[in-house]
Specification:
About 50% of the residues lie in helices and about 15% in strands. It is α+β, with helices and mostly antiparallel strands. It has 2 domains: about 100 residues; about 170 residues, 2-Layer Sandwich (Heat Shock Protein 90). Strands 4-6-7-9-8 form a 5-stranded mixed beta sheet. The chain has a two-stranded antiparallel sheet with strand order 1-2. Strands 3-5 form a two-stranded antiparallel sheet. Helix 4 runs parallel beside helix 10, helix 5 packs across helix 8 and helix 8 runs antiparallel to helix 10. The radius of gyration is 20 Å and the shape is globular. The termini are close together.
């Protein structure tokens, strides 16, 4: 495992090594100047919430405010990390390792539920049995199926980037669903991911701009949802950098399905 550059990636783009080094330095600066303060805020809020014997008891109103701060700090931390991962991927920088895909699926779902402030997910963190975990997700309207080769064979790629892809697709589906989200991960050669919601669907004209930055369909449809319009654009950038493909199927009034194909790295 370790940071490495996909062979020929920078040269293909005509990026001088000096320019790449400058961008890497910028990424390091971003990590230091934003991640550090956010980590301090997260740690401080967690201490106030969990160490009443040291800081004193909280009223219910104070606890709700601190929990909201914790959720939004987590969202900010995730956003910073996503920017970093997208920038690294565009430079051909990847962390290559073998890992169980079910672990990344689990982490992605928990991050989405945690960021959404869903109550009662503490029990999900404690579940070690994978089947019991997936069964418990149905109470949140999430249905997961992991099958094929990668159900029992470690996948080789950058787990952070795959987790980011999953997290954004699941989060997007959760925002626009009516009652359920279906996640499927399978494949015998490439990793095949599909995330389906039963929401309002996307019109053909809106589908053409779906992966553009700062374009949010919720601005035009009933029941706008919060967001910057960066998630799907980031997913597209990551999938392209990983030499994969992303497609969608959608019909108005029925729902939307995003499908991603990712080839494994060869050691």
């Amino acid at each position: 495992m370790g940071l490495w550059k996909r062979k020929g990636k920078l040269e293909e783009k005509g990026i001088p090594i000096e320019a790449s080094a400058q961008k890497e330095a910028f990424i390091d600066l971003l990590i230091h100047d934003l991640s550090g303060p956010l980590s301090i805020v997260a740690t401080s809020v967690t201490s106030l919430l969990q160490k009443s014997e040291r800081y004193g008891p909280l009223t219910e109103a104070q606890r709700r405010v601190l929990e909201r701060i914790a959720r939004n700090t987590l969202k900010a931390q995730i956003l910073v990390q996503e920017i970093i991962e997208i920038t690294r991927s565009k430079e051909g920088l990847f962390e290559k390792e073998h890992f169980p895909i079910e672990r990344v699926v689990r982490e992605s779902i928990l991050e989405v539920l945690e960021g959404a402030g869903v109550e009662g997910i503490e029990k999900l963190y404690e579940m070690e049995d994978g089947e019991k975990f997936k069964q418990s997700l149905t109470s949140y309207g999430i249905y997961v199926e992991v099958s094929g080769k990668w159900c029992h064979t470690p996948f080789c790629h950058d787990p952070k980037k795959i987790r980011q892809i999953l997290r954004n697709l699941i989060s997007n589906a959760m925002k626009y669903r009516r009652t359920r989200v279906d996640l499927s991960v399978k494949g015998e050669k490439d990793l095949l991911i599909s995330v389906r919601d039963d929401g309002l669907g996307i019109s053909p004209e809106d589908q053409t701009m779906l992966f553009q930055r700062f374009r949010r369909l919720g601005d035009k449809r009933e029941g706008a949802v919060p967001g910057l319009g960066l998630g799907l654009a980031g997913v597209k950038a990551l999938v392209d950098a990983m030499e994969g493909e992303i497609e969608l199927e959608s019909k108005e009034g029925i729902g939307t399905c995003f499908m991603v194909r990712l080839p494994p790295f060869n050691l």
